Amino acid sequence: MDSIEVVIAHQERATLRVGDVFLKVDADQKRTDAEVAAMALAPLPTPEILWRRPPVLALAALPGVALGVLGEPSPASPAAWAAAGAAARTLHDTSLPPWPGRTVDDWASELDREYTWLITNAVLPTALVTRNRRVAEAALRPWTPAFIHGDFQLTHVFTDGDALTGVLDWSEAAPGDPMFDLATLTLGHEERLTDVLRGYGPGADPDMIRAWWSLRSLVVIRWLSENGFDPSAPGCEIDVLKAQL
User: Which of 1, 23, 39, 97 falls 20 to 30 Å from 90 in CA-CA distance?
Assistant: First the structure.
């Protein structure tokens, strides 16, 4: 060990890597409580908890490498992406965690608020935002809740060759729409959707996945901009919205 790596840092939480140990510092201990509980229930490989001393949670590094990074081509094989889809299916088929998740009304309220902010502040062309809102609204329908990861992005899914080795960052896990996980995984990587669906098996709805691409991108732009991230970077959220046209 010759350095400390800042993996991510913003107003709510920070993650540091020290050798093979990840130190997660979270201002809201309820999120950490949820993460620890979700990892105990999840039927997937998760990081080993080394110790917890609030506000810090220490986790062992997972073997393998992440599927990729948003905005960059993924080096992972089609079989690795299919393995990620199969892992999502395994999670979605297990029993629900015993705490509530976000409802359709919660998502609708957030979409209304962020749509208004985007239009009022002329962050993006009105036609682009309005068109994506129409696409996004398809996701706001009754769904059968499943145990979802809640932040199943490709940087949280680790593989070694074609095999899944583990999934990170369970603080958003809760009952929810399983298509949200598949949309989060494939956001900005539409070319990998077929591989993911092959691993996931029957029951996936590509139209709902695309609706969640729009919804997730619209509601996160303000947060990303205020926390030091760039949603306009190539291949990221704003490009996802443009691709939906």
Answer: 23
Q: d(Cα 143, Cα 174) in Å, to the nearest integer?
A: 14
* Ranges assigned E (strand) in the chain: 4-9, 13-18, 21-26, 49-53, 56-60, 65-66, 146-148, 157-160, 163-167, 174-176
CB 197 within 8 A of CB 85: yes
For the segment 173-215, what is each residue's pLDDT rounded down to a tens digit?
999 999 999 999 999 999 999 999 999 999 999 999 999 999 9
Taking Cα atoms as reference points, which of 53, 18, 66 lies closest to residue 169?
A: 66
d(CA 154, CA 191): 13
Q: What is the pTM of this model?
A: 0.95
Domain 64-243, CATH: 3.90.1200.10
